[in-house]
């Protein structure tokens, strides 16, 4: 059976209408109707009733068709060694993407690299689904994915220069931080609790550079990566917190991960960040 027929059945099941499904598939309605009849005949079943609802056997067929199509897509990606889809956590791209691309190019000069910047949680999901080959992000890694550490980064507590460290536990402060569920938000919440820092209002943002730029105007404190740009009027106080920044992947078919880490570290030593 031609694997394209799985796509035919899945599209009709989604649309519950042959005309719309045919339009989405860029084929004629008669051709799609004939294909459905051939599939029924091949398997000796009826997949759809007259209203294009799935029959019980049709539900079983679709269940396996979804998995088959997914695996076909995985196979195509694995065979397509000329392209590498990578993701990097927002904010970190401007600091490390150049070294990453140079390292990949050193390993495979011919490969075409497609880049996606997003929050690490979504990047991990994309790696699990097979939409990305590799991700670059801070720990912890939430999915059961393979990962190798590229470096360890320190975290700093940023605050307006007129703030006094002793006042952190005595006065209420505004806290600038990422949205709930983000990795840095979890670390920030833990740090605040552990150090008994008094918080009045929590102001959320989706970008670390934005948080950094708002510290003075919001008269707030924020936990940030040590690599963050130093702005005038802000004191960046060292903390005992650190976390690893990893290369994350599901399969290593397209890149020698150990060699990549070795090259990345070599290149990074020559680059002033």
From TrEMBL:
Transmembrane segments: none
Keyword Transmembrane set for record: no
Any Pfam family: LysR_substrate
Keywords, in A-Z order: DNA-binding, Transcription, Transcription regulation
Domain HTH lysR-type: 1-55
Highest rank taxon of the organism: Bacteria
Family: Belongs to the LysR transcriptional regulatory family.
Name of the protein described by the UniProt record: LysR family transcriptional regulator
Taxonomic path: Bacteria, Bacillati, Bacillota, Tissierellia, Tissierellales
């Amino acid at each position: 059976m031609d694997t394209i027929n799985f796509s035919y059945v899945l599209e009709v099941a989604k649309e519950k209408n042959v005309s719309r499904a045919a339009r989405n598939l860029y084929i004629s309605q008669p051709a799609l109707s004939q294909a459905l009849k051939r599939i029924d005949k091949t398997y000796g079943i009826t997949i759809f009733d007259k209203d294009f609802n799935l029959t019980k056997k049709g539900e079983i067929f679709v269940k396996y068709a979804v998995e088959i199509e997914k695996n076909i897509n995985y196979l195509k990606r694995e065979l397509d060694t000329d392209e590498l889809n990578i993701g990097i956590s927002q904010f970190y791209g401007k600091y490390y993407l150049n070294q990453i691309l140079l390292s990949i190019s050193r390993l495979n000069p011919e490969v075409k690299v497609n880049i996606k910047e997003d929050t690490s949680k979504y990047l991990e999901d994309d790696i699990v689904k097979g939409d990305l080959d590799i991700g670059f992000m801070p720990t912890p890694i939430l999915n059961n994915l393979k990962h190798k550490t590229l470096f360890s980064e320190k975290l700093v507590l940023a605050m307006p220069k007129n703030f006094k460290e002793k006042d952190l536990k005595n006065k209420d402060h505004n806290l600038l931080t990422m949205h709930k569920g983000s990795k840095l938000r979890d670390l920030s919440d833990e740090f605040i609790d552990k150090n008994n820092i008094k918080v009045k209002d929590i102001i959320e943002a989706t970008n670390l550079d934005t948080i950094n730029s708002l510290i003075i105007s919001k008269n707030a404190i924020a936990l940030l990566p040590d690599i963050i740009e130093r702005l005038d009027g802000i004191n960046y106080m060292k903390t005992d917190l650190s976390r690893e920044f990893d290369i994350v992947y599901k399969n290593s078919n397209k890149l020698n991960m150990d060699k990549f880490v070795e090259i990345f570290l070599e290149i990074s030593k020559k680059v002033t960040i």
